[in-house]
Amino acid sequence: MLPQAEPSWTLNEAAHLLNRAGFGGSPAEIKAFHALGRVKAVDSLLTTSDDADAFPLPSWATPEQAIADMRQRIDQRRELQRSTRGLSAEEAEKVRREARREEQQESRRHALEGQGWWFRRMASSKAPLREKMTLFWHDHFATSVQKVRQPVLMLMQNGLFREHAFGSFKDLTQGILMDPAMMLYLDTQNSRKGKPNENFAREVMELFTLGEGHYTEQDIREAARAFTGYQLNRFTGKVTHVARQWDETPKTIFGKTGTFKGADVINLIFESPRPADFMARKIWEFFVYDKPAEAAVSALGETLRKADYQMAPLLREIFLSREFYTEAAIRSQIKCPLQFIIGMLKQLEVDSPPAGFPITAQQQLGQTLFLPPNVAGWDWGQAWINTNTLLTRYNLAGFLTKGAESAGNAMNGEKMKVPGMAKAPKNPGRGWQGPDYETIAPRPLRDQPDKLVDSLIFRFFQGPIPDKARGSFIEYAAAKKGAVFTNKETAELCHLMLSTPYYQLC
Q: Is 237 left (phi over 0), alpha (psi -120 to 50) or beta?
């Protein structure tokens, strides 16, 4: 077990935990979280749940409607075949092209609605760690709606990740084997006896459980034969194993021979101690910092093995560890775009984002929900920042703090088009006036530039910043202060603070 942190803790440590185990919070939320004490705060993250009806799925994503829609699409395709029999080849192709276009448009609308649904849940959930872990699993078991093409399957997978957020890594991996979105993404539904597809066999070892160098090419080839026969029923969205399409002959995997099916292969993988160390390292790097000490990885791996791969004990040990609150950990991560966007909304106490802002901001910053770039997920850390994305972050901060009119075209929805996806609204955020600065910067505070700046430093940075930076903010506030420190001037000060390198870290 890792050395534990002291029971007492500071406001800044509470903010650090809320940032890493969620998406941050307002000063009032941080203070309420801090009042719980370190241990109870960690326990609350692992036990709090959202009300069952707090985030109803889009109507098309309910199980009943999803099945009805699948059947309707099949009926429509059959009708299309009948209706084009008497047409010329050119006319028939025109009719089929129009039908495909309508189906694609509906899919794109549903994808945008699904992205909006999950973003709202991340931004306002009472269970932020569960949403953060759902994001982690989405990146770990990466699939993209661009290839899956059925947003309802992406939301089903999203529910699987949320259900298993703190549960068994092993059970979740078994669930992914039978997950319709993953089947379509890695072509498992095309893998059958005599024609095995190696995609899932390779990724389940290399990216999901073991890492490079802990399996052989022969293991992959043999495992691919075990993963044959899994089929997706388009009427029900259920995955079953079809015996006649399964290669029932013996396979030798990791030195063991048997007539293995896919579930057996995953069980073989988890007989090794390697998945525990593999996941312990990845979780540490997601929540704490890169390149952990090998001793820490071994200790956390042992925790995970003893817990039969349940994730909650691992997370609890990390969040209560002394190392989690060291200088090496606090404010050492570059915010991913979602952390940047949601954190900024929380700090500015914006409960309802401007229309179109979430999806446009995600697209412009390079992290769009349900659209990871490949099966390895997103690149993190330094990859989030370059000259263009840094400028875009500053512009988006300007839009949120100063309003649509003052921010110019920072939210132009025409700037970004993601292949296979509907474009963001053409004029997102139209009419946005900015946050409630009477709450963020009360009038009495504006009479004292140093106290105003210190209040905003805690709101945006949750910790000390270099004296030179603090001095420049105070100087700016003093220079802007006239007979009345207006909301416009407050917005400019906030934008200045959010447009600094320090704000890109959490």
A: left
User: Which residues have C-beta within 8 Å of that of residue 132, sequence separation ≥ 6?
Assistant: 21, 22, 23
Q: Facing residues of 240 across strands?
A: 231
Cα–Cα distance for residue pair 83/367, rounded to 1 Å: 42
Is residue 430 within 8 Å of 355, Cβ to Cβ? yes
Nearest to 262 by CA among 279, 246, 285: 246
Per DSSP, the three-state class of 32 is: helix
| CA dist., res. 77 & res. 79, Å (int) | 5
pLDDT tens-place values along the chain, 506 residues long: 999 999 899 999 999 999 999 999 999 999 999 999 999 999 999 999 999 899 999 999 998 898 888 888 888 889 999 999 989 999 989 999 999 999 899 999 999 999 999 999 999 999 999 999 999 999 999 999 999 999 999 999 999 999 999 999 999 999 999 999 999 999 999 999 999 999 999 999 999 999 999 999 999 999 999 999 999 987 778 899 999 999 999 999 999 999 999 999 999 999 999 999 999 999 999 999 999 999 999 999 999 999 999 999 999 999 999 999 999 999 999 999 999 999 999 999 999 999 999 999 999 999 999 999 999 999 999 999 999 999 999 999 999 999 987 765 566 544 445 444 555 556 677 889 999 999 999 999 999 999 999 999 999 999 999 999 999 999 999 998 777 789 999 999 999 999 999 999 99
Tokens of 420: 């296979």
Structure tokens at 130: 């569960």
231 strand-pairing partners:
240
